[in-house]
Task: inverse folding
């Protein structure tokens, strides 16, 4: 097993270099700074001065640290609790990213100091993803309206087709039940006895 440790002063780019090397070499990136901060957080919660090395060392048997990679981001767990800090920033279109970044870093730094009582020198800001929530909501709403209108048109077309079929059936039934205008042929009169006698006399005379 090969381990690579990178040391240097604060702000020298140790984390950036370590992440790039881990990616290129296929190694697991371990943020030891996050581990130290997690131990400091546990000490503060336990009411121990994080600057007292002996007191902090006495807490170590009670501390379990786990590092997990979730969605491409490293998370550190302190006794099963995710103590990583995730920040979601909503930015109006056209707002300078540099200004937003500096503001987010400062707000996160103050928040961590307020929660832990630790002194935070700096906060690294990494953009994990960008989403256009407002535009996505408007697009989804437009799609719902379009689908609703399409469904209404289909239903209307089905109702019209059904009504047309019913009308056609009624007209056909009415036509079959109506009497025709053609006169019925009259039955021929049957010959009487007088007609037979006259016919015989006419034959004799002839």
Result:
């Amino acid at each position: 097993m090969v381990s690579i440790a990178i040391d240097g002063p604060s702000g020298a780019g140790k984390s950036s270099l370590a992440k790039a090397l881990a990616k290129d070499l296929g190694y697991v990136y371990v943020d030891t700074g996050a581990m130290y901060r997690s131990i400091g957080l546990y000490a503060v919660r336990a009411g121990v001065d994080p600057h007292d090395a002996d007191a902090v060392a006495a807490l170590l048997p009670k501390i379990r640290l786990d590092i997990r990679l979730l969605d491409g981001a490293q998370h550190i767990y302190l006794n099963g609790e995710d103590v990583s800090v995730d920040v979601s920033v909503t930015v109006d279109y056209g707002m300078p990213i540099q200004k937003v970044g500096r503001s987010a870093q400062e707000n996160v730094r103050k928040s961590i100091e307020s929660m832990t009582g630790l002194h935070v020198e700096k906060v690294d800001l990494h953009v994990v993803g960008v989403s256009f929530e407002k535009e996505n909501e408007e697009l989804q709403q437009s799609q719902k309206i379009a689908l609703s209108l399409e469904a209404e048109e289909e239903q209307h077309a089905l109702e019209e087709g059904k009504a047309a079929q019913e009308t056609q059936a009624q007209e056909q039934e009415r036509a079959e039940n109506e009497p025709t205008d053609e006169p019925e042929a009259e039955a021929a009169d049957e010959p009487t006895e007088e007609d037979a006698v006259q016919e015989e006399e006419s034959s004799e005379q002839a």
In short: The mean pLDDT is 75. The helical segments are 14-25, 32-45, 53-59, 97-116, 133-177, 193-205. The chain is about 55% helix and 5% strand. The longest helix spans residues 133-177.
